[in-house]
């Protein structure tokens, strides 16, 4: 277990932003993770748990407490059942599952971050989300001071949400278990229109597993969503805003504001309608590359707010607020940030 004082946090995030941690602990085993969390709780010390740092916006003042960096490793495959340690690099785990000929997470290729973060956010992309494959999550319950195993149903998954996100002070994910699919080298059915168009197939069809994997990597790279230290378009937290889910009344008001324009619309649970945050941002006047300061929109994708190399967290949040307020004025829709905010808020 490595302990560092006054340790910089910016290099541990994909945005490369944020001030230092008073104390940074890097834990390589579940036992070290639990011991660190338990010690912080007994001392009533603020605790921040991070993995790959891909979904974090940390304030410029840093974190006055203990930051626990989970660096555990473990990739265990038993037939179609996969168990990942929380510290496993997610993109590497997806590649290994594809190499094993198993479908179920191939459309989540190239997503940065750690395996342990995926159930917290119910990570999803290109018509697939981890909730569809997770069978169990093993976590340390800080309230009960014990290791618990939660079934898929007990995780409370919904769009970019989970029990872990709803109660962030309670659980620390240790391991994630998936049930994948042996489809004779084929992918799960293609559900996302952009992927189907790129592959030249109809929605619902299957394609070669490796073809699906490589296609998604290509699409993500084209949007600056695959990490590349030399490309500032990838110095981001991925999609900064979630796609808005509107109630029937909200959607009716939205349609009135649209006038003759047609916005993307997808059915959502409880009679709601989901629309595209990227479309709203663009139509509100914030195109690719918008901004003149050290934080701008990506030149490849309007949903990614990027650090051009010298930005501060204050710079990034200033841009985020400008975009949020512009969309609200134009369409009456409130955009919600997807990354977790540490010491700051929109």
Automatic annotation (TrEMBL):
Pathway: Cell wall biogenesis; peptidoglycan biosynthesis. Residues 17-183 form the FAD-binding PCMH-type domain. Its EC number is 1.3.1.98. Pfam families: FAD_binding_4 (PF01565), MurB_C (PF02873). The keyword NADP applies. One of its GO terms (cellular component) is cytosol. Gene3D superfamilies: 3.30.465.10, UDP-N-acetylenolpyruvoylglucosamine reductase, C-terminal domain, Uridine Diphospho-n-acetylenolpyruvylglucosamine Reductase, domain 2. Its cofactor is FAD. It catalyses: UDP-N-acetyl-alpha-D-muramate + NADP(+) = UDP-N-acetyl-3-O-(1-carboxyvinyl)-alpha-D-glucosamine + NADPH + H(+). Keywords: Cell cycle, Cell division, Cell shape, Cell wall biogenesis/degradation, Cytoplasm, FAD, Flavoprotein, NADP, Oxidoreductase, Peptidoglycan synthesis. It is an enzyme of class 1 (oxidoreductase). GO terms for biological process: cell division; cell wall organization; peptidoglycan biosynthetic process; regulation of cell shape. Belongs to the MurB family. Cell wall formation. This is UDP-N-acetylenolpyruvoylglucosamine reductase. The gene is murB.
